[in-house]
Automatic annotation (TrEMBL):
This is Ribosome assembly protein 3. InterPro entries: Ribosome_Assembly_3, Rsa3_C. Coiled coil: none annotated. The keyword Chloroplast does not apply. It is found in: Nucleus, Nucleolus. Belongs to the RSA3 family. Residues 7-17 have a biased composition (Basic residues). Residues 18-39 have a biased composition (Polar residues). Residues 1-48 are annotated as: Disordered. GO terms for cellular component: nucleolus; preribosome, large subunit precursor. One of its GO terms (biological process) is ribosomal large subunit assembly. Required for efficient biogenesis of the 60S ribosomal subunit. Pfam families: Rsa3.
Length: 117
Protein backbone atom coordinates (compact mmCIF):
# COMPACT_ATOMS: atom_id res chain seq x y z
CA UNK A 1 0.00 0.00 0.00
CA UNK A 2 2.91 2.37 0.42
CA UNK A 3 3.54 2.40 -3.33
CA UNK A 4 -0.12 3.06 -3.95
CA UNK A 5 -0.16 6.04 -1.52
CA UNK A 6 3.01 7.40 -3.12
CA UNK A 7 1.35 7.22 -6.54
CA UNK A 8 -1.69 9.11 -5.32
CA UNK A 9 0.46 11.86 -3.86
CA UNK A 10 2.32 12.34 -7.15
CA UNK A 11 -0.86 12.85 -9.15
CA UNK A 12 -1.70 16.38 -10.13
CA UNK A 13 -5.07 18.01 -10.05
CA UNK A 14 -6.86 18.16 -13.34
CA UNK A 15 -6.70 21.61 -14.85
CA UNK A 16 -9.97 23.42 -15.22
CA UNK A 17 -11.13 24.78 -18.57
CA UNK A 18 -10.07 28.36 -19.19
CA UNK A 19 -13.65 29.51 -19.44
CA UNK A 20 -14.55 28.13 -16.02
CA UNK A 21 -14.04 30.65 -13.26
CA UNK A 22 -13.11 29.43 -9.83
CA UNK A 23 -12.32 31.05 -6.55
CA UNK A 24 -9.13 28.95 -6.26
CA UNK A 25 -7.60 30.37 -9.42
CA UNK A 26 -8.72 33.87 -8.54
CA UNK A 27 -6.92 33.82 -5.22
CA UNK A 28 -3.72 32.36 -6.71
CA UNK A 29 -3.50 34.81 -9.62
CA UNK A 30 -5.41 38.00 -8.91
CA UNK A 31 -6.68 39.69 -12.03
CA UNK A 32 -6.09 43.42 -12.47
CA UNK A 33 -9.28 45.29 -11.86
CA UNK A 34 -10.39 48.65 -13.12
CA UNK A 35 -10.58 51.03 -10.22
CA UNK A 36 -13.31 53.59 -10.22
CA UNK A 37 -12.94 56.93 -8.54
CA UNK A 38 -14.28 57.12 -5.02
CA UNK A 39 -17.44 59.16 -4.84
CA UNK A 40 -15.67 61.93 -2.96
CA UNK A 41 -13.13 62.33 -5.81
CA UNK A 42 -15.75 62.46 -8.56
CA UNK A 43 -16.88 65.90 -9.75
CA UNK A 44 -20.33 65.43 -8.30
CA UNK A 45 -21.46 62.28 -6.55
CA UNK A 46 -24.56 61.24 -8.45
CA UNK A 47 -27.24 59.01 -7.01
CA UNK A 48 -28.34 55.92 -8.92
CA UNK A 49 -31.60 57.66 -9.87
CA UNK A 50 -29.71 60.68 -11.23
CA UNK A 51 -27.38 58.45 -13.24
CA UNK A 52 -30.33 56.48 -14.61
CA UNK A 53 -32.19 59.63 -15.63
CA UNK A 54 -29.10 61.19 -17.23
CA UNK A 55 -28.27 57.99 -19.09
CA UNK A 56 -31.85 57.60 -20.35
CA UNK A 57 -31.74 61.17 -21.68
CA UNK A 58 -28.37 60.55 -23.33
CA UNK A 59 -29.49 57.23 -24.78
CA UNK A 60 -32.74 58.61 -26.20
CA UNK A 61 -30.96 61.56 -27.80
CA UNK A 62 -28.46 59.29 -29.53
CA UNK A 63 -31.04 56.66 -30.49
CA UNK A 64 -33.35 59.24 -32.08
CA UNK A 65 -30.43 60.79 -33.97
CA UNK A 66 -29.26 57.39 -35.20
CA UNK A 67 -32.73 56.22 -36.23
CA UNK A 68 -34.11 59.59 -37.35
CA UNK A 69 -35.02 58.49 -40.87
CA UNK A 70 -36.68 55.28 -39.70
CA UNK A 71 -38.61 57.10 -36.96
CA UNK A 72 -39.84 59.65 -39.49
CA UNK A 73 -41.07 56.82 -41.73
CA UNK A 74 -42.91 55.20 -38.81
CA UNK A 75 -44.53 58.48 -37.80
CA UNK A 76 -45.53 59.22 -41.40
CA UNK A 77 -47.20 55.84 -41.87
CA UNK A 78 -50.94 55.92 -42.45
CA UNK A 79 -51.70 53.61 -39.53
CA UNK A 80 -49.61 55.59 -37.00
CA UNK A 81 -51.81 57.41 -34.48
CA UNK A 82 -50.82 60.07 -31.95
CA UNK A 83 -51.55 57.74 -29.05
CA UNK A 84 -48.82 55.39 -30.35
CA UNK A 85 -46.09 57.97 -29.69
CA UNK A 86 -45.73 57.13 -25.96
CA UNK A 87 -45.48 53.47 -26.91
CA UNK A 88 -42.69 54.28 -29.37
CA UNK A 89 -40.80 56.30 -26.76
CA UNK A 90 -41.20 53.50 -24.22
CA UNK A 91 -39.88 50.99 -26.74
CA UNK A 92 -36.79 53.14 -27.32
CA UNK A 93 -36.26 53.51 -23.55
CA UNK A 94 -36.13 49.73 -23.18
CA UNK A 95 -32.71 49.82 -24.83
CA UNK A 96 -31.24 51.33 -21.66
CA UNK A 97 -31.77 48.01 -19.89
CA UNK A 98 -28.99 46.51 -22.01
CA UNK A 99 -26.45 48.49 -19.99
CA UNK A 100 -25.44 47.69 -16.41
CA UNK A 101 -25.64 50.38 -13.73
CA UNK A 102 -21.85 50.62 -13.73
CA UNK A 103 -21.73 51.10 -17.51
CA UNK A 104 -24.42 53.77 -17.29
CA UNK A 105 -22.49 55.59 -14.55
CA UNK A 106 -19.26 55.42 -16.57
CA UNK A 107 -20.96 56.87 -19.67
CA UNK A 108 -22.68 59.65 -17.72
CA UNK A 109 -19.49 60.61 -15.86
CA UNK A 110 -17.51 60.58 -19.11
CA UNK A 111 -20.09 62.93 -20.60
CA UNK A 112 -19.77 65.23 -17.59
CA UNK A 113 -15.98 65.28 -17.96
CA UNK A 114 -16.29 66.04 -21.68
CA UNK A 115 -18.58 69.00 -20.96
CA UNK A 116 -16.02 70.45 -18.52
CA UNK A 117 -13.30 70.57 -21.17
Amino acid sequence: MDARNATKQKRRKKSKPRTQASSDSDSEHPQPTQKSLPKSDSPKALTSAEVSAAFTKYYLQHATQEFAENLDKVRAAEDFRDDALPLLVNALQQGTSLFTAEEQRRIVEAGMEKKKK
